[in-house]
């Protein structure tokens, strides 16, 4: 589809995925603000609980702490702008601001996806090759995988964002979503938008590849666990994987709904709900899953809370 380039170039986009200010958008502001605070505080607690408890200084918990750290910035890339749009009648974002939001949101999301894949491989080695685990998952390799996940997640998106930044936008300027995303933005370009299909295919391949690695890892893990003779041993093995499996299902389940539909179109309200699922609700439940489903994590969090109380009491 090619549009006429006779109109003036667009300098900002307007978000049309929000309820109108007159329709009570403030009612959405309060719960979203509370959820955002919970995400920040919850993930900070998980991060510092792992870092300050020496019993949790192992690859699995290191990956969990890095994931929690990324979640803070992943939500910060979109939710603050959502909050400002809910209390503003303008609801616009500059083209540069939109490109930056897309870059950081998806780069952090890519890093999280790679990290989840790494965590699945870590659990696979720990359960399927327990005797070789200490020699395979060394602290050095663990650090390399964590740093590599972040670096690759940010680098892989640079060519795509650079290409989008060269496209002309001459109107209309309404993004039918609650934050900047590839498909809604590309549809506004005043040029051939057949590249949207190529973008969809690239994203789909990346998602399916990661899901397959994690799924195959857990099929093998479950097979090995079911062969453990004692019920207590099976319960312990399952408990070490349950948290990661829950986060994986939430993260990739919502991402798949958003990016594995190709040319299928959903009603605007359903688009908004799906976007909220992977941008807000999944990060909201992650610290709950990691803290409530893990005995060691609960102990570490209690220690952290007690330490804060002691420091507060001594300061006062």
Automatic annotation (TrEMBL):
Belongs to the G-protein coupled receptor 1 family. It is found in: Cell membrane. It comes from Moschus moschiferus (Siberian musk deer). InterPro entries: GPCR_Rhodpsn, GPCR_Rhodpsn_7TM, Olfact_rcpt, Olfactory_GPCR1. Putative odorant or sperm cell receptor. This is Olfactory receptor. Residues 42-290 form the G-protein coupled receptors family 1 profile domain. CDD domains: 7tmA_OR6N-like. It is a multi-pass membrane protein. Gene3D superfamilies: Rhodopsin 7-helix transmembrane proteins. One of its GO terms (molecular function) is olfactory receptor activity.
């Amino acid at each position: 589809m090619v549009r006429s380039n006779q109109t003036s170039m667009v300098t900002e986009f307007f978000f049309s995925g929000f309820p109108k200010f007159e329709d009570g958008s403030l009612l959405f502001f309060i719960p979203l603000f509370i959820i955002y605070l919970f995400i920040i505080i919850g993930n900070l607690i998980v991060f510092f609980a792992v870092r300050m408890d020496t019993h949790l200084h192992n690859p699995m918990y290191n990956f969990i702490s890095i994931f929690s750290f990324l979640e803070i910035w992943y939500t910060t890339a979109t939710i603050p702008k959502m909050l400002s749009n809910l209390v503003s009648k303008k609801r616009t974002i500059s083209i540069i601001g939109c490109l930056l939001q897309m870059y950081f949101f998806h780069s952090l999301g890519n890093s999280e996806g790679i990290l989840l894949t790494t965590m699945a491989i870590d659990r696979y080695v720990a359960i399927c090759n327990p005797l070789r685990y200490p020699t395979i998952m060394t602290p050095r390799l663990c650090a390399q995988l964590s740093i590599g996940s972040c670096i690759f997640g940010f680098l892989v998106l640079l060519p795509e964002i650079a290409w989008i930044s060269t496209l002309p936008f001459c109107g209309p300027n309404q993004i039918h979503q609650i934050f900047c995303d590839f498909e809604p933005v590309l549809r506004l370009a005043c040029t051939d938008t057949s590249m949207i299909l190529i973008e969809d295919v690239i994203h789909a391949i990346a998602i399916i590849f990661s899901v397959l690695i994690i799924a195959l890892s857990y099929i093998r893990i479950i097979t090995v666990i079911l062969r453990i003779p004692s019920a207590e041993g099976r319960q312990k093995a399952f408990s070490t994987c349950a948290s990661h499996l829950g986060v994986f299902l939430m993260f990739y389940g919502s991402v798949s709904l958003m990016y594995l539909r190709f040319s299928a179109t959903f009603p605007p309200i359903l688009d908004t709900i799906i976007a909220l699922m992977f941008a807000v609700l999944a990060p909201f439940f992650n610290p709950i899953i990691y803290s409530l489903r893990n005995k060691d994590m609960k102990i570490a969090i209690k220690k952290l809370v007690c330490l804060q109380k002691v420091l507060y009491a001594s300061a006062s």
